[in-house]
């Protein structure tokens, strides 16, 4: 049966999908809840055998959004300014050899890339070059290279200070390796810190949370295999350990992220589901006092899938859940230990068991609300279904039906004649525009030119309705 699921997944992965709403728990064969499929690019289209990490870049010049996708043999760049029709712009090949592990972060319009490939070091790529790609896909070259370490498992950047931190390198016993990247194409090593143990991943923040003892300090929170380690790294020449904390049933302390108020730290353990038979376990620590962190609570998800990288946006926690794809938790009442599943998009249909196949990373920080999912399924772009309804005025007196629709749409008004109907894509591009002079309170409009997907229907410039075209 597992071979059958893998065959189905391989067939799905070889196809590029675009704009399919989540209806009755599925979108183009992918199980889902509260997230619509916008587009998808397979690994084969990017000429890679595997995918891993991801990040995003928004061009401040024109607001265009780009996805940066880690692959076994390099880093792919995808223009997602039209999320339904993404453009694979090309790839920056690996500096040395291929590797399962690659990680990328962004600072000052530059990408910083590390890998566990031997001798890889840190690649620096000027992202503004993506503005002028005339014949995609291109093969890019790096703009600078840092060789203060060879292989690294991960890279962390504090954009406030302009420092990058290689973690899981052969230097400083696997602790953070400090790199000044304030001049991106001239990175300068500034030492490092040997922590209690090998640091697999970390978050670094300029602290503004509830512990006034550390206000304004640069704080590193390391996920260090069997514990979480907090360090004050404000003074790079003299880092100061703050505290450590572990927990019951440690498998592999993998990666974590602060809530936006920096009061709670949300952690994923990568092998506890495998080692102990848990369903997906998310651990929450109270970091109100950085010198004395406390275990707060844990949440067990609905499947046995292994968890990987996770991030916080507002009152939601977005994380890659390997075989279960993107998983999103509602953490709005985290203080009272009330956590629930908000939604998901399963990029690895057919199995939700523990293991390392499926989604590796998610990137939920684009202004558009588009969310990148990366991993063994290649590149997937999704969006919260409910975000499409922000401008809808439910008591406007206008009704549209049928919905979903196919060829024609009826619009009925209980208040005033229908004078104009406009249809927009989810990125705000107007596709259809009808004007009426008969002062009718009901109109039938032709929509047979629309492809299947989600659209916004604006009526009389007064209200906007969400329309699904099948």
UniProtKB/TrEMBL annotation:
<feature type="domain" description="Secretion system C-terminal sorting">
    <location>
        <begin position="400"/>
        <end position="468"/>
    </location>
</feature>
<dbReference type="GO" id="GO:0005576">
    <property type="term" value="C:extracellular region"/>
</dbReference>
<dbReference type="InterPro" id="IPR027589">
    <property type="entry name" value="Choice_anch_B"/>
</dbReference>
<protein>
    <submittedName>
        <fullName>Choice-of-anchor B family protein</fullName>
    </submittedName>
</protein>
<dbReference type="InterPro" id="IPR026444">
    <property type="entry name" value="Secre_tail"/>
</dbReference>
<feature type="signal peptide">
    <location>
        <begin position="1"/>
        <end position="18"/>
    </location>
</feature>
<dbReference type="Pfam" id="PF18962">
    <property type="entry name" value="Por_Secre_tail"/>
</dbReference>
<keyword id="KW-0732">Signal</keyword>
């Amino acid at each position: 049966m597992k071979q059958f699921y893998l065959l189905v997944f391989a067939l799905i992965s070889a196809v590029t999908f675009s704009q399919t709403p989540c209806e009755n728990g599925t979108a183009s064969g992918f199980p889902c809840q509260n997230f619509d499929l916008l587009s998808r690019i397979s690994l084969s289209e990017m000429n890679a055998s595997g995918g891993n990490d991801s990040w995003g870049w928004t061009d401040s010049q024109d607001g265009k959004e780009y996805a940066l996708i880690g692959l076994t043999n390099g880093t792919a760049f995808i223009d997602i300014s039209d999320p339904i029709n993404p453009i694979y712009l090309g790839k920056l090949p690996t500096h040395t050899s291929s590797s399962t592990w690659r990680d990328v972060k962004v600072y000052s319009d530059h990408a910083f890339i590390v890998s566990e490939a031997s001798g890889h070091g840190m690649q620096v790529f000027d992202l503004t070059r993506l503005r002028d790609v005339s014949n995609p896909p291109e093969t890019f070259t790096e703009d600078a290279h840092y060789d203060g370490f060879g292989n690294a498992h991960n890279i962390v950047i504090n954009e406030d200070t302009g420092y990058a931190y290689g973690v899981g390198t052969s230097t400083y016993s696997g602790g953070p390796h400090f790199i000044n990247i304030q001049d991106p194409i001239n990175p300068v090593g500034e030492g490092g810190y040997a922590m209690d143990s090998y640091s697999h991943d970390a978050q670094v923040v300029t602290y503004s949370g509830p512990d006034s003892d550390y206000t304004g300090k640069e704080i590193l929170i390391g996920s260090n295999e069997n514990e979480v380690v907090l360090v004050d790294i404000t003074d790079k020449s003299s880092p100061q350990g703050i505290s450590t904390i572990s927990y019951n049933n440690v498998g592999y302390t993998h990666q974590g992220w602060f809530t936006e108020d920096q009061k709670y730290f949300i952690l994923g353990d990568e092998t506890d589901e495998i080692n102990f038979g848990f369903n997906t376990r998310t651990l929450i620590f109270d970091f109100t006092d950085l010198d004395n962190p406390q275990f707060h609570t844990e949440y067990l998800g609905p499947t046995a899938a292994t968890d990987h990288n996770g991030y916080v946006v507002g009152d939601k926690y977005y994380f890659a859940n390997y075989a279960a794809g993107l998983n999103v938790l509602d953490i709005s009442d985290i203080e009272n230990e009330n956590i629930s599943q908000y939604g998901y998009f399963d990029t690895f249909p057919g199995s939700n068991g523990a293991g390392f196949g499926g989604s590796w990373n998610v990137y939920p920080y684009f202004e558009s609300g588009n969310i990148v999912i990366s991993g063994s399924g290649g590149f997937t772009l999704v969006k919260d279904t409910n975000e499409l309804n922000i401008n809808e005025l439910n008591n406007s007196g206008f009704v549209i039906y049928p919905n979903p629709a196919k060829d024609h749409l009826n619009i009925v008004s209980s208040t005033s004649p229908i004078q104009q109907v406009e249809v927009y894509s989810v990125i705000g591009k107007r596709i259809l525009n009808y004007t009426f002079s008969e002062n009718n309170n009901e109109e039938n409009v032709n929509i047979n030119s629309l492809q299947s997907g989600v659209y916004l229907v604006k009526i009389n410039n007064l209200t906007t309705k969400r329309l699904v075209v099948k």
